[in-house]
Amino acid sequence: MTAVEERTGAAAPEKEIGKARRRKEDARLITGRTTWTDNMVLPGMLHLAVVRSPVAHARISNVDVSAAREAPGVVAVFTGRDLAEEQGSLPCAWPVTPDMVNPGHPSIAVDQVNHVGEAVAVIVARSKAAAQDAVELADIDYEPLPVVLDMEEAVKDGADLVHDHLESNTSYHFVFDAGEAGTGGDTEQAFSGADVVVSRRFVQQRLIPAFMEPRSVVVQPQGDNYTMWSATQIPHILRVMAAMVTGIPEHKLRVIAPDVGGGFGGKLQVNPEEILCLLIARRLGKPVKWTETRSESLMTAHHGRDQVQFVDIAADREGNILGLRVRLLADMGAYLRLITPGVPALGAFMYPGIYKFPAYRFECDGVFTNKVPTDAYRGAGRPEATFAIERIMDELAVELGMDPLELRRKNWIDAAEFPFTTVAGLAYDSGDYEAATQQALQLLGYDELREEQRRRRESGDPVQLGIGISTFTEMCGLAPSRVLGSLAFGAGGWEHASIRMLPTGKVEVVTGSTPHGQGHETAWSQLVADSLGVPFEDVEVLHGDTAISSRGLDTYGSRSLVVGGSAVVRAADKVIAKARKIAAHLLEASEDDLEFADGKFSVRGTPGTGLGIQEIALAIFAAHDYPEGIEPSIDADATFDPENFSFPHGTHLCAMEVDTETGFVKIRKYASVDDVGTIVNPLIVEGQVHGGLAQGIAQALYEEAIYDADGNLTTGTFVDYLVPSAADLPHFDTGNTVHAAPGNPIGAKGVGEAGCIASTPAVVNAALDAVRHLGVTDIRMPLTPERVWRAIHQGGDGGDRAAARSNAQAVDSSDAPSTSGGAL
Amino acid sequence: MIPAPFAYARPTTVEEALQAIADCGEDVKVLAGGQSLIPVMRLRLAAPETVVDLGKVAGLRGVRDDGDAIVIGAMTTHSDVLADPLVAEHAPLIAEATGTVADRQVRHRGTFGGALVHADPAGDLPAVALALDAEFVVAGQSGRRTVPAGEFFVDYLTTAVGEGELLVEVRVPKYTGWSMRYEKFNRVAQAWSIVAVAAAVRREDGRIAEARVGLTNMGPTPLRARQVEEALAGAEATAEAVAAAAERAAEGTDPTSDLNAQADYRQHLAKVLTRRAVSTAAGL
Ligand SMILES: Cc1cc2nc3c(=O)[nH]c(=O)nc-3n(C[C@H](O)[C@H](O)[C@H](O)COP(=O)(O)OP(=O)(O)OC[C@H]3O[C@@H](n4cnc5c(N)ncnc54)[C@H](O)[C@@H]3O)c2cc1C
Question: Quick one: which of A231, A221, A227 has its CA closest to A239?
C-alpha cells in the first residue's frame, strides 16, 4: 500500500488518479457515527412492525387484529384489506419479452400469501418494542394451498400453480439465437457436425445478499409532501417508482439515501415496506419508521441466483469450439420485483465468455415458485454465465484429454483482435487475455503447484491438490440507454453530475450515482482534483438526496465510475471551459493563448502570469468584472450516456487442497489478475476485488438459501446461512493488467463484480481437479464437506444424497428441524 | 429482534441468586453470558417472565487449585479459561476446545458454566468435561450436591441441574503427564461443531496406558467412546493400533441428520477425527 502523501509546497501537484488514497468516508462509516437511516429520530415518530406469513402458500381465510389493536402503545393496525385499494403493485421494470406474465406484486397480501414472510398486517406503535410485542397478537387463519418449490417440477404439465389465476408457472420464455440475430451461425448445424458434444446440468443455488446494514425506512409527511429516508441503492429510481405506485406526485416526494451499509444488489429494489411506510404515513399524517431484523432480512429481502443451467458445448477433436447451447430455468420466486426477470437475461449475452464461438443459442424460462423473489445480486446473471462457460470448458478439456488452459488459449480472442464482436453481438472493447493469464500463473506459482499435485497423486496422499482456472469478462458500465431500450428495460443507463464552484474555491460535486460503501466520495474527489487542479481535500461529494442530486440512476452493475465518474469528468471539462472565458477577460488575453494546467490559466509564453480556477470562483461570485454576454457562473453539469459497455476481464487461479478422508476443502493459494481499465484508486480496486472474491468463494463453498419441503427458509439465521469471514479465506495474490476502456473519458471498465464473477468457477474447477482421478465428475455448490466426501466415496457426483437436492432437503423437514450446530 | 418483556434481577451472591429464583416462581431463566439465552429470547423462542443475571455474582468467577483437581467457577468466561495457567497446565484440552468456540466477542461474554448447562449437542465443552470425568457442583436452596459428568448430561439441551438450582462450579481432576487433543470439524471458523472429538492419552513405555475419548454432536448428549478407550488401553502406540481402535468410534451412536451432515457421514467423521485426535495426543 502506498502511504497517503501530503501535498508539498508549490511544486506541481502529484496526479491524484492512480494514488492509493484511503477512503475519506471510512471513519464515519466504520464507527457508525453517521446518518444510517435507523439512526434517524423524528418528533412524534411511530414505529412499524410487520406481521408475516408463516406459511408458503395459502388463502387468507380470516384476519383478526382486534387484540393487537388493543395492545399497549399500539396506534393502528393495517391489514391487506385496509390497504388493498391504494397499494397498487410493486413495479417490475424489465418485461424481458412482450408476453411476459406478471401476476402483480402487492406490498401486503390481501387474499393469498405466496411465500413465507410475506406481509399480512402492519402494527403501528409508539415504540419499536410495543410494535413487536403486538405482532404476536395478530390472529390470522390460513387455508393451505399446495406448495411449489422445485422449478423442474413446476414447469411440468399439470403442476400445482403458484398463482392459480395464471395458466402455468412460467412467466416468460426468452430466446437469444445468434443465427437469427445474424451474429453467428446456425447452432443446430454446428452441433450436428461436431466431433464432440459435452452436456452438463449445473445448479446455481439460491443466495442471500446479506448486506451488513439491515433495510430501514423513515417517512415524514409534511402537508402533501413526503420525505423518505431509505437504506437503498437507488433513491432516484425509488422516487419515480414509489410515486407511480402510490400516486403521490413525483415532485411531492423526496427520497434520501443517507449513508447506506452495503447492498450487493440486495438494495436495488422497491421494497414492500417502503411502499407500506408511505401509505401509512399518508394515512396517519405522522412520521413512521421501519427497520428490519436480521431474520426478516434473510427471509424477505430478495435473494439472488437460483437457476438450473443445461449447457451443451460442441467442438472438433482438436479442441476448436463450434457451438454453445444454453437452456435455463430461472427461479423468479413468487413475484416479479424490480428486475427479477432481467437478471438471467442480462447473463444471456455473457455465456460465450472470452471465446470465439461460431454459433450460440440461449433460452430461458422464468419460473414462479413459493419463495421470496430473486433479483439482482452482485454480478446479476453474469456470474451464472461465467460459471457455466468456465465449468463446461473444463469438462470439454477432460473429454478431449486436453490441458484446460490450452483449450482456453486455443479459443479465446487474441489481443490483436480487439475490438471484437462476439457471437452474442457484443463489441468487446480492449484487453489481453494472454497477458493476464501469464501474470496469474506467475502469481500462483503454477508450475511448482502442478508438480506438488503430481507428487501427492503418486503417493496417494489423503490430501489431494487441484488447480482451477477461470477467465471472465463481463458487460459493465451499465449502460448505453439505447441498448437498454432495445432490451425493453424500463429506464436509460446514463448518469448525471454537476460541479458547484464555491466562493472560497472549494468544490461541491453532485453525483447521481449513489454510493453504498464503494468509496465514491474519495474516487470522485481524485477525479475532480486532477481535472480542476484543486487539492483533493477541497472537494466535497454530495449524493443520495433527490432534492440535492436531482438526476441520477444510482449504483449497481459496476457502473458508478465508468458512467457516473465520466459525467463528473465531463462536468469538470465544462467548468474549465466556462472559467477560460473569464480568465481570458481578467488576464486580458485571448482565450486561444491560454493554457490550463495544475488548476491555473496562464498566457502561453508569458511566465509568471496566471490565475487559479479557485480565484476565478471568487471573482465570478463577486461578479464585478466579467465579460459581456455570458452568465456569471462557472458551475456546470453533464449527463454521460455511454455508447458501449465496457468489458473488464481477468484470469483467476485457485489451488485447492481436498482432504479426501473428510471432504473438507481448503484454498491453498488464490491468484487473480484483473483488467479493470484505468485504476483511479488502487486501494479501492483491491478492496473491491477482495470483497468480490469473498462472495464468489462463498457461493462455491459456503452459502445456500435452503427451503424445507413446506417452503420455510431453513437457513434463516447466520448460524445456518454460512457467510465466511476473513478466518475462512486465504491470502489473495492480486494483480492487474491495464487496457484503458476506449468508451469513456476515464478509461475505467468497472471492478465491482469482477472478483465475484470469476472466483466461483475457479474454486469449483480446482476442487474437481483435485479429485477427478478418484472418479469424481461433479460436485454441487456449495461444496460442503459432505458433498465432496460422498462424491469421492461414491464416485460421479456423489449420488442423490449429495447432488440432486441440497443436504437439507434430502432428509425430510421433520427430520431436520434446524442445524443442530447452534440449536440455540 | 426485541425480546418479550421480562422482569430482571441481579443478585450478588449464590444465596441471593437462589432466593431470587425461588421468589420468581416457575417462569424464570438464569442469565450467564447470554450468548445462547439472549438470541433465543430475541427470536422469541423463549420468553421467561424473569431473568436472573449472574453477572454480578463474583464468587462464581475464576479458577482455583484444589489439590488433585482444579475448580472452574461457572461464570468464568471462555476468554478467562483460555488465559488461565491452571487450565493450561492440568487440563489443556479445555483450553484447546474453548479456543475453537465461536469468535473473540462471544468468548469474551460466554461462560464455561453456561456452555455446560446449555448442553448444546454441538457445543464443544460438554464432550470435553465428559472425557475428563469432571464433577459438577450444583447448588439449590437445600444445599449443594456433586454430579459426576456421566450423569450430568441427561438429554438434548437438558442436564441434571433441576429447577431452582444453579451450577456453581466444575471440578476437573488434574491430568498430570497426559497429553490431549481436541479435533473439531466445522465449515466456517466461528461455527459449532459438525462433529468433534476430545482425546486424552497417557503413554507409558511405548504403549498407550489409558485413553479417554469424548464425542461432540454424535447424539443428543455428549458421548464417551468407551469401545475406543478399551481398544486403546494397553495398546502399542502405533498408527495402526490407533487407526484400528478409532474404527470403533461410531459404535452405538445415533447422530442426527441436519443441514451440515447426514447421520452416516457424521459416523464416518467420528472415526476419522478420533484417529486424528488420539494420534496427535499420543504424539504419533
Ligand atoms: C455466534 C456464536 C457462536 C458460537 N459458537 C460456539 C461454538 O463453536 N462452540 C460452542 O461450544 N459454543 C458456541 N457458542 C455458544 C457459547 O459457547 C455460549 O457462550 C454458551 O453456549 C452459553 O454460555 P453463556 O454463558 O452465554 O450462557 P447463557 O446464554 O447465559 O445461558 C445458557 C443457558 O444456560 C443456563 N445457565 C447458564 N449458567 C447457568 C448456571 N450457572 N446455572 C444454571 N443454569 C445456567 C441459562 O439459563 C440458559 O438456559 C456460540 C455462540 C454464539 C453466539
Answer: A227
Q: How far is CA A294 from the centre of its chain?
A: 20
Is the predicted ipTM greater than 0.85, yes or no? yes
Evaluate whether A714 touches B257 at the Cβ level (below 8 Å).
Answer: no
Residue A669 main-chain phi, psi, to 5 deg:
-155, 145
Go through A735-764 and write b for each residue having 16 or more CB atoms within 10 A of its CB, e for each that does not. bbbebbbebbbbbbbbbbbbbbbbbbbbbb
Q: What is the mean pLDDT of chain B?
A: 97
Element (H, E) at A750: none
CA trace torsion A550, A376, A428, A559 (10° rounding): 30
Tell me: the pLDDT tens digits for A123-179?
Answer: 999 999 999 999 999 999 999 999 999 999 999 999 999 999 999 999 999 999 999
Q: What is the pLDDT of residue A801?
A: 72
For atom 51 of ligand 1, the residue with the nearest CA is B35
- pLDDT value at residue A11: 61
* B244 vs A: CB within 8 A: no
**If one looks up domain B7-53 in CATH, what number appears?**
3.30.43.10
- How far apart are the CA of B102 and the centre of ligand 1, in A? 11
Q: Give CA–CA dist A88/A83, Å, rounded.
A: 9
Is the bond preceding residue A159 a cis peptide, omega within 30 degrees?
Answer: no
pTM to 2 decimals? 0.96
Residue B37 near ligand 1, beta carbon < 6 Å: yes
A175-208+302-478+644-815 placed in CATH 3.40.50.2300 = no
Q: Say if the Cβ atoms of B121 and A820 lie within 8 Å.
A: yes
Same fold, A175-208+302-478+644-815 and A494-640: yes
> By three-state DSSP, how is residue A90 classified?
coil
All three cell numbers of A470, joined, read 477461470
Ligand 1, pocket-test mutation among B10, B18, B37, most atoms within 8 A of CB = B37
Task: Return the ∠ at Cα A111 (arms to A109 and A113), rounded to 5°.
Answer: 50
| Cα(A49)–Cα(B213) distance, integer angstroms | 49
- What confidence tens digit (pLDDT) does each residue in A92-124 have? 999 999 999 999 999 999 999 999 999 999 999
Class assignment of domain B64-173?
Answer: alpha beta
Contacts of A818 in chain B (CB under 8 A): 258-259
Residue B169, CA atoms < 13 Å, CB-side half-sphere: 19
Mind listing the pLDDT tens digit for each residue in A582-615? 999 999 999 999 999 999 999 998 888 899 999 9
CATH of A494-640, one of 3.30.365.10, 2.60.120.1060, 2.60.120.10, 1.20.120.450: 3.30.365.10
